[in-house]
């Protein structure tokens, strides 16, 4: 029988930051659907999942904001690349 970890209550700031992380995650996967090459799409999908999973333990607000900034920049770069390839 697996022991259950106690649920921690998030304060408003943590809740809003969590929502921002989840939005970034969804936006990345929505954008990845537009990658034309299936192999590349699957590799990027796996990389994104692993990256989010490997960083979910962070609780320091500064670290999370930094990673969010980097993730948003990477997403914009990917979107720009895809837009150029469609032209």
TrEMBL record:
<comment type="similarity">
    <text>Belongs to the complex I LYR family.</text>
</comment>
<comment type="function">
    <text>Involved in efficient integration of the N-module into mitochondrial respiratory chain complex I.</text>
</comment>
<keyword id="KW-0496">Mitochondrion</keyword>
<keyword id="KW-0809">Transit peptide</keyword>
<protein>
    <recommendedName>
        <fullName>LYR motif-containing protein 2</fullName>
    </recommendedName>
</protein>
<feature type="domain" description="Complex 1 LYR protein">
    <location>
        <begin position="19"/>
        <end position="76"/>
    </location>
</feature>
<dbReference type="GO" id="GO:0005739">
    <property type="term" value="C:mitochondrion"/>
</dbReference>
<dbReference type="InterPro" id="IPR008011">
    <property type="entry name" value="Complex1_LYR_dom"/>
</dbReference>
<dbReference type="Pfam" id="PF05347">
    <property type="entry name" value="Complex1_LYR"/>
</dbReference>
<dbReference type="InterPro" id="IPR045293">
    <property type="entry name" value="Complex1_LYR_LYRM2"/>
</dbReference>
């Amino acid at each position: 029988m697996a022991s259950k970890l106690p649920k921690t209550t998030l304060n408003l700031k943590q809740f809003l930051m969590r929502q921002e992380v989840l939005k970034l995650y969804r936006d990345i996967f929505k954008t990845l659907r537009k990658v034309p090459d299936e192999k590349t799409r699957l590799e990027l999908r796996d990389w994104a999942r692993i990256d989010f999973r490997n960083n979910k333990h962070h609780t320091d607000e500064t670290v999370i904001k930094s990673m969010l900034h980097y993730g948003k920049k990477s997403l914009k770069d990917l979107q720009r690349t895809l837009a150029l390839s469609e032209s």
